[in-house]
């Protein structure tokens, strides 16, 4: 599936819209600052902004506050310096960046899924001992070793591939899920052979397909819409309700997920990722449970970015600006 955003066909210039642009870029700035601060809290023991309100404000918390202030200042400076930038150009530029993030995530789960499933199979069947020494064999049985030394390099390789690839892998990932399910059926009923890693791989890829494709589906207006009055509205009124709903429901939901999921070292996303958490099957399954926890964060991040793009497109529709994005026919 190729990226169908038409940034090259959108004029970068348009009537000034400082307030919606400032809101949109400030939202992205706060998101970036939030993620940087999460790394500082989890990885370096910073206290978080909550310390400002708990009477324990030290130098570290002021550094974190400065990160937010600096990010907002950059967003405001960009908006002020590009006062004639069109809403639709901003929206498509944000969308294209989001597409890159999604493409990176898809390549990452493809590489990690294939490699980790292979490692799990060799670990279960005791094949590593045929050509590796004892210490290395034991390392391949430790999630805390496989994560940093196998998974992270593969995620880095996925980043490089995503830079040069211009295709989104939704259909291919869906095909791989079907192939993996078919392999389970054949191995179980024909060869009476089954391992936990086979189910792990299907769940891993299916979760990625469902969560990562959501943002791109929003771009093509492919999510289920409970439509009572909406279809009878004109473009201007649709733009108003889309912009309003994006803020009150879409962005709010994403921020709730982010706040709960990244709310400290013991939160539902940070804790599994920090500990390279694995399933209860232990060494007979794949070491990817911690990544599936991270999927929730990636979902919220990419959806929030896409909601910002959708908000700008909706405001442009409300203002009657040219270049309205028509969803792909398959989205309906």
UniProtKB/TrEMBL annotation:
Main subcellular localisation: membrane
Location of the Tripartite ATP-independent periplasmic transporters DctQ component domain: 182-308
GO cellular component: plasma membrane
GO molecular function: transmembrane transporter activity
Keyword Transmembrane helix: yes
Residue ranges of the TM segments: 22-49, 61-81, 101-124, 145-164, 170-191, 203-219, 239-262, 293-312
Family per record: Belongs to the TRAP transporter small permease family.
Protein name: TRAP transporter small permease protein
């Amino acid at each position: 599936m190729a990226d169908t955003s038409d940034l090259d066909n959108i004029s970068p210039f348009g009537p000034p819209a400082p307030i919606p642009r400032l809101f949109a870029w400030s939202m992205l700035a706060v998101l970036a600052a939030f993620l940087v601060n999460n790394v500082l809290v989890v990885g370096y023991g910073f206290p978080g902004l909550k310390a400002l309100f708990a009477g324990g404000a030290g130098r570290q918390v002021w550094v974190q506050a400065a990160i937010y202030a600096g990010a907002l200042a950059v967003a405001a400076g960009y908006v002020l310096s590009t006062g004639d930038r069109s809403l639709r150009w901003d929206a498509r530029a944000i969308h294209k960046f989001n597409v890159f993030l999604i493409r990176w995530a898809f390549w990452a789960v493809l590489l990690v899924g294939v490699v980790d499933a292979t490692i799990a199979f060799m670990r279960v069947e005791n094949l590593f001992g045929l050509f590796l020494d004892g210490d290395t064999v034991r390392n391949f049985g430790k999630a805390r070793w496989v994560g940093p030394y196998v998974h992270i390099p593969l995620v880095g390789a996925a980043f490089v591939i995503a830079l040069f690839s211009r295709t989104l892998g939704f259909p291919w990932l869906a095909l791989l899920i079907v192939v993996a399910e078919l392999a389970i059926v054949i191995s179980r009923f024909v060869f009476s052979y089954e391992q936990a890693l086979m189910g792990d791989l299907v769940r891993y890829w299916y979760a990625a397909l469902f969560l990562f494709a959501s943002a791109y589906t929003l771009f093509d207006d492919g999510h289920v819409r409970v439509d009572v009055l909406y279809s009878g509205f004109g473009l201007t009124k649709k733009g108003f309700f889309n912009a309003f709903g994006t803020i009150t429901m879409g962005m709010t939901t994403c921020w709730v997920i982010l706040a709960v999921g990244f709310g400290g070292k013991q939160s539902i996303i940070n804790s599994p990722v920090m500990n390279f958490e694995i399933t209860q099957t232990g060494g007979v399954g794949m070491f990817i449970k911690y990544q599936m926890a991270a999927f929730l964060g990636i979902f919220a991040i990419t959806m929030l970015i896409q909601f910002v793009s959708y908000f700008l497109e909706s405001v442009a529709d409300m203002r009657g600006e040219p270049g309205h994005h028509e969803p792909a026919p398959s989205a309906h």
